[in-house]
Amino acid sequence: MGSGSALPTKNNFHASQVFELRGRRYMIDCGEGAQIKLNQYKVNLSRLDNIFISHLHSDHCIGLMGLISTLAMLGRKTDLNIYAYKDLKEIISPMLKYFSDDDSFNVVFHDINPNQKAVIYEDKGLKVSTIPLKHRVPTCGFLFEEQQGERHLIKSMIEAFDIPIKDLKAIKQGADSVDKEGFIVPNERLTTPADPIRKYAYISDTLYTEKIINQIAEADILFHESTFVDDDRQRAKETLHTTALQAAQIARKANVKQLILGHFSARYRDKKPFLKEAKSIFENTILAEDGLQLEF
Amino acid sequence: MGSGSALPTKNNFHASQVFELRGRRYMIDCGEGAQIKLNQYKVNLSRLDNIFISHLHSDHCIGLMGLISTLAMLGRKTDLNIYAYKDLKEIISPMLKYFSDDDSFNVVFHDINPNQKAVIYEDKGLKVSTIPLKHRVPTCGFLFEEQQGERHLIKSMIEAFDIPIKDLKAIKQGADSVDKEGFIVPNERLTTPADPIRKYAYISDTLYTEKIINQIAEADILFHESTFVDDDRQRAKETLHTTALQAAQIARKANVKQLILGHFSARYRDKKPFLKEAKSIFENTILAEDGLQLEF
Q1: pLDDT at A207
Q2: What is the bridge-based pairing of β-strands A184-185 and A177-178?
Q3: By the 8 A CB rule, do A45 and A66 touch?
Q4: Is A244:A277 a contact under the CB 8 Å cutoff?
């Protein structure tokens, strides 16, 4: 929804993304105007039930009020879950209470500790973990990991060994087949491995830090903030942000498949230098832009 | 900045306008994304010191937080005055305190009573009054009136009567000339009338009401909300809004020079019917659109 940073512009709104898996939508950060972009990009709001806020700087969360107002106006009834540092509830509640009708839906705040690696959300398809970062306020990134799927049955082998249907569920989960006589067929002969799980890592505002590398290793896509280009590395350090070159270093060390740069400072009209310096280290890099949609 | 209503769209952001007189800028309402539009339309923020909020529905005020954050980031030091119903301070302060640096500027809240006609702001060039309206929460419009200017000296007469320079200030303000011998020259022989004062009336969310007519009479421009077209008059009544036809009736009865319709419901993609029905009653009507700029 937004690829900009603190000062939003026409082309780069405040930070906000929507991650979708099997029809469920998960929002990551919610800067000003996120709801306008959701409407513009025709994102279906019906199964958007969980919002993850990386930190409480205004460019990452002040769109919540507008989004919540709009969801209420559209007649939403189901809970909306917001995962954020504890203070969010305190600062947004007065407005929330004032603007909400009594009969609208509940906003449920889930406190997260951004300084600690932890699974903060789980459903059948997905697991979300915090990735501690180094910024001026408590901040974390998020790792979106598919839940491990089941192994695939080899139909011909299942038939050849005459495996009863009631055993198939356990076999798909990795069990060997054992018949009444104690005859064992190892799982490896009956199944092929489950699909590899897909991972998306979202690295919000942070000073360059290699502490995240283990957690984001092998991710299919790494979104990494790059507020500055490397010529402004000193400014990045002072404000606890990262340069495009540094983000590419992280991508290479973590051996991710693809890097997306974003959270660009409004000072740069031309974004090409971000891409150029990142690609010098990590070739499979693209630039975020408002409205960018990727499938993997 | 925004010509839409509760549900903002790509083309019609939430309500927000900027009025400019002699280099000073005054903001009227501040819906979500107002700061993005200010940037997009290159509105100079340096002399934007006063913001008038018509009522505390989210689409008229939730852009304040983003705007204030941005002004702080741009290094603003001078006070920002916000004129609004008293509750605004209460609901926005927690966020304001949380996001603001200690060394940023002061936001000064001025409580207004939307149910009462009153001059709420005055400077050398301008006077702003509240216009009580009928909506679901305490709501007012605003009348922007130039201060009465000075009369124009007739240079040839000033010379002919040899009027001393020290008397000119009083004469421009309407005084007669009286010399030491008590000889009187009436002001009308020395001056021509001051320029007529210009008036802009902003009518925010309201049920059709003729009570405003006296106050907005003869305005150069009347902005009047028209959330609905007249086919949806019942819906307008239920939600305490106005139709385009009704807004045109007000414009005609108040004998204003020009009518601008705005605050369109997101349900209408095509805005032409608004214009058509208004023009059937009041010819000099135009439709507001984001980015519209008028000089008068």
Answers
A1: 98
A2: antiparallel
A3: no
A4: yes
Above 80 in pLDDT, residue A51? yes
What is the value of pTM for the model shown? 0.91
Q: How far is A87 from chain B, CA to nearest CA, in Å?
A: 9
The CA–CA distances, whole Å, from B80 to A206, B44, B104 equal 31, 15, 11
What are the residue boundaries of the structural domains of chain A, listed by start? 16-149+195-287, 152-192
Taking the mean position of all CA atoms in its chain, how far away is CA A128?
8
**Cα(B263)–Cα(A66) distance, integer angstroms:** 17
Which residues in A have their CB inside 8 Å of a CB on B?
Answer: 6-10, 13-14, 32-33, 35-36, 39-40, 56-59, 62-63, 65-66, 69-70, 73-74, 87, 90-95, 98-99
| Out of B39, B74, B94, closest to residue A91 by CB | B94
The residues pairing with A119 across neighbouring beta strands, listed in sequence order, are: A129
User: Biggest alpha carbon distance in chain A?
Assistant: 74
What is the distance in angstroms between the Cα of B188 and the nearest Cα belonging to chain A?
54
Known catalytic membership, residue A59: yes
Q: Which fold would CATH assign to domain B16-149+195-287?
A: Metallo-beta-lactamase; Chain A (3.60.15)
Question: Are A35 and B32 in contact (CB < 8 Å)?
Answer: yes
Render each residue's pLDDT in chain B as its tens digit; 296 residues: 999 999 999 999 999 999 999 999 999 999 999 999 999 999 999 899 999 999 999 999 999 999 999 999 999 999 999 999 999 999 999 999 999 877 789 999 999 999 999 999 999 999 999 999 999 999 999 999 999 999 999 999 999 999 999 999 999 999 999 988 889 999 999 999 999 999 999 999 999 999 999 999 999 999 999 999 999 999 999 999 999 999 999 999 999 999 999 999 999 999 999 999 999 999 999 999 999 999 99
Tokens 């279906």 — which residue?
A: A44
Contact A26, B68 (CB under 8 A): no
CB contact under 8 A, A58 and B35: no
Tell me if B91 and A90 make a contact (CB, 8 A cut-off).
no
Q: Would you call B58 and A66 a contact, using CB atoms and an 8 Å cutoff?
A: yes
Chain B contacts to A (CB-CB under 8 A) = 6-10, 13-14, 32-33, 35-36, 39-40, 56-59, 62-63, 65-66, 69-70, 73-74, 87, 90-95, 98-99
Cα distances (Å, whole numbers) of residue A118 to A24, A25, A211, B16: 22, 21, 15, 42
DSSP string spanning A61-95?
Answer: HTTHHHHHHHHHHTT--S-EEEEE-THHHHHHHHH
Task: Give CA torsion, residues A165, A167, A169, A172, to 10 deg.
Answer: -110
